[in-house]
């Protein structure tokens, strides 16, 4: 039994139950706050929108959600606290940063450019501060470190972020979860994290379902890390039936103990409202906090995947990743 930090305080890893391993309560790409037409930030309203989208998970027995929102994608622990309290669901939040291309790096780059600080040390200090002291004045401590790299390359800055995360993970036992662009650079992320001292048992390489190659998946898994198939419903990038077929293949090959499933859904996106183009909306129609229960798990079962394997992916693996036992 280990203690896991949730937004409402520490709980026992035995109480995690069924876990969605990579979702977002709220998130937004940097820049929404500069759009004069953005909707105003109304925390009350945002929390109620999130609550509405989360409520349905309870019917499927979900007990806990890992919120993978890094600091620079408008993470809001106050909204998470409200949603957790009102929905009765554990929420584990992240310290960490997003990709160089899409995160908020101007401030750190300016400091490093002026010779004030070294990027890697400043990132490490920041991760450690949130892990040991909490996020801002909220008192909330993160339960995971989220790091991210861009498509088909890892920039020096992103490598510094991975190194800082590995060191903080090694020293505090906090697991590292990652963002890859459609699975690219998965093996490289694992190699850097492990090379910098992170325990493979505490690493989950994310968005791997974006890559349909079984051989590529096994290449990442051969490092001893876990992977997540966490974008079910984002069919704009890849159809769910392809993700499901690859997952069924990996399960048949005996990898149930190293895979987690989730949806990368966002309860509320900030910024300007509006509707998606018809073709896009059509490809995102199943995206929600409950797509895996409504569509993916039934399809896996039809493919011969057992209840036991599903439980391994949704209960046992997250417990081991988050709690180390
Ligand atoms: Zn995500």
SSE layout and pairing:
Layout (H helix, E strand, L loop, with lengths): L2 E4 L2 E4 L5 E10 L15 H12 L7 E6 L9 H11 L2 E3 L1 E3 L9 H8 L5 H15 L10 E5 L7 H17 L3 E4 L6 H10 L7 E3 L8 H8 L4 E4 L10 H13 L6 E3 L4 E4 L8 H6 L7 H12 L4 H17 L2
Parallel strand pairs: 3-4, 3-12, 4-5, 6-7, 7-8, 8-9, 9-10, 10-11
Antiparallel strand pairs: 1-2
Helix pairs in contact: 1-2, 4-5, 5-6
Bound molecules: zinc ion (ZN).
CATH fold topology? TIM Barrel
Oligomer: single chain
Shape descriptor reads globular
Name the helix and strand elements from N-terminus to C-terminus, one letter apiece: EEEHEHEEHHEHEHEHEHEEHHH
State the helix count.
Answer: 11
Number of domains as seen in the coordinates: 1
Low-confidence stretches: none
**CATH architecture label:** Alpha-Beta Barrel
What is the count of β-strands? Answer: 12
Order of strands in the sheet with most strands = 6-7-8-9-10-11
Give the biggest beta sheet.
6 strands, parallel
Average pLDDT, all residues: 96
Name the CATH class.
Alpha Beta
Measured as a percent range, the helix fraction is 25-40%
Structural class: alpha/beta
Strand content: 15-25%
Rounded radius of gyration (Å): 18 Å
Small molecules (ligands, ions, cofactors) in the structure: zinc ion
The fourth-level CATH homologous superfamily is Metal-dependent hydrolases
Euclidean distance between termini CA atoms: 7 Å
């Amino acid at each position: 039994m280990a203690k896991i930090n949730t937004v409402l305080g520490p709980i026992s890893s035995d109480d995690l139950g069924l876990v969605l391993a990579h979702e977002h309560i709220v998130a937004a790409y940097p820049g929404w706050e500069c759009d004069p037409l953005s909707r105003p930030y109304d925390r009350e309203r945002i929390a109620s929108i999130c609550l509405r989208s989360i409520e349905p998970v309870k019917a499927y027995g979900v007990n806990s959600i890992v919120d993978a929102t890094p600091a620079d994608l408008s993470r809001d622990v106050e909204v998470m606290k409200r949603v957790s309290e009102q929905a009765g669901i554990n929420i584990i939040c992240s310290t960490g940063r997003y990709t160089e291309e899409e995160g908020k790096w101007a401030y750190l780059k300016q400091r490093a450019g002026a010779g004030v600080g070294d990027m890697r040390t400043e990132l490490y200090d920041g991760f450690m501060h949130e892990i040991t002291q909490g996020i801002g004045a909220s008192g909330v401590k993160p339960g995971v470190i989220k790091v991210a790299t861009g498509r088909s390359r890892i920039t020096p800055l992103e490598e510094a972020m991975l190194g800082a995360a590995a060191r903080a993970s090694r020293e505090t036992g906090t697991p590292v979860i990652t963002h890859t662009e459609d699975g690219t650079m998965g093996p490289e992320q694992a190699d850097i994290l492990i090379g910098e001292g992170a325990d493979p048992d505490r690493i989950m390489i994310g968005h791997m379902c974006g890559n349909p190659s079984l051989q590529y998946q096994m290449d990442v898994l051969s490092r001893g890390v876990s992977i997540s198939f966490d974008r079910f419903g984002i069919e704009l990038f890849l159809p769910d039936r392809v993700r499901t077929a690859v997952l069924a293949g990996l399960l048949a090959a005996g990898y149930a103990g190293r895979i987690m499933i989730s949806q990368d859904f966002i309860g509320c996106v900030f910024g300007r409202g509006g509707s998606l183009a018809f073709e896009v909306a059509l490809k995102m129609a199943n995206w929600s906090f409950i797509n895996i229960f409504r569509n993916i798990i039934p399809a896996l079962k039809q493919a011969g995947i057992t209840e036991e394997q599903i439980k391994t992916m949704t209960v046992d693996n997250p417990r081991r990743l988050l709690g180390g036992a």
